[in-house]
Design a protein that fits this description.
The chain has about 100 residues and is mainly α. The chain contains 4 helices and no strands. α1 packs across α3. It is globular and about 35 Å long.
């Protein structure tokens, strides 16, 4: 039973964050995410700091890691999901 003030979700409680990210990737493979983004016509038109696929995983991860800040969730995704890297000279996205 959750304790008062415990904001962790059932999925993320007690599991390492990398394991939870692995479960997200398994449930929502990058190829399928890309197909859906393309089918909906939501692929980015220009190179952005937050591409469409990253935003899908970011949105899902915000739900799973509700106790973390936006920056912490973004950092977990960039470290934990293969292919989600920034070019070395890219500016870091912020909550703003």
């Amino acid at each position: 039973m959750p304790r008062v003030g415990d904001n962790s979700t059932t999925l993320s409680a007690g599991l390492p964050q990398r394991v939870v990210l692995g479960l997200l990737i398994r449930a929502f493979p990058p190829e399928h995410v890309d197909q859906i983004v393309d089918a909906l016509g939501r692929r980015e038109q220009r190179h952005r700091l937050l591409p469409a696929r990253l935003m899908v995983y970011f949105t899902l991860a915000l739900w799973v890691f509700g106790e973390l800040s936006y920056e912490e969730v973004l950092g977990e995704i960039l470290r934990g999901i293969p292919g989600m890297t920034r070019p070395p000279d890219a500016q870091t996205a912020s909550a703003a």
